[in-house]
Design a protein that fits this description.
Blueprint lengths: L14 H13 L10 H15 L10 E7 L2 E7 L3 E8 L8 H13 L5 E8 L5 H9 L3 E4 H8 L7 H17 L12 H12 L4 E7 L6 E11 L2 E8 L2 E7 L6 H16 L17 E7 L1 H5 L6 H26 L1
Amino acid sequence: MRKKTPNIFSFATSELSQDAMFAWLISWSAPEYAAADPELHRIGQNFVRLLAGKESDFKIACVDVGRQWENIDIWAEINDNTFLIVEDKTGTSIHDDQLERYKASVEKEYAGKRTDLCYAYVKTAEEPGSVLKSIEQYGFRTINRAAILKCMEDYKGSDSLLISYREHLREIDARVNSFRSLPEKEWGWDAWQGFYKELESRVDIDSWSYVANPAGGFVGAWWHFVEMGDCTMYLQFEQGKLCFKIAYEDENGRSEVRYRAHSKLMEKARNRYPEIRRPDRFGNGTYMTIAVVEEERIFGEGVVDFDTLAAKLRDYEALISECAQSLIVREL
């Protein structure tokens, strides 16, 4: 088998490198480059339309593109009235109030000058649905890896940079979607993110992200928060392990609250869900694991059956709600 040739984007993995790639491609949308490489010009124009949310009949007469104005990753003046900014992410996410600040800077600078102001948030890795919703509330279009790949898919030219970048995105796509064809024990971090994105379409996930801990951290997901008197019970995936957890803010009485929640859960689970067991050890922090289900009891040995998995998780959600309802009835 012939070995693949080296790909520059296997080494140029930073957001700054991707910024440069995007700015370069936006530049190719300018009409003066149409004769130099018609195919690359066509893809550049389609890319600008994708970022700005324009239809295929949007004419691009002139483009001026730059980077790092007011800390904005990429900006472009298009025609006489359109201004586009792009916030570009690879593996990181939004922080502080950066999108709000960027939008305010643009509106201040272009007040009375341009009225078609376009805001794009591009993420080539996975992003939780809850984060995407918050980004859209700021007025930013969210553009994912699949949309960029679709834009580039029919490129028939020979430009090595564009071909290399497209192949780079395809390789990310393959890693992310490997959870569909590999057993859970063989999933990498990208596959876990792909799994959580799929799970979002079947279960009402609050969010998911990397969680740091002394053991090296994990990609976790959490959802179904239910009040149980003085604590909140919820579900959390810690990659392979599924945890029933409680959140309890007060430093006093944690062991008592934890024991009560654990006892109630095990009472309700007994004879119905024998796979739910006591954790090897109880913690003593704000967020405490009170029961676990090991990965083989959740995922099995082969490729994951998502219908079966989602049904099981909904059963566990109902179990938590039942515990909470039982507590309310008892207190009444």
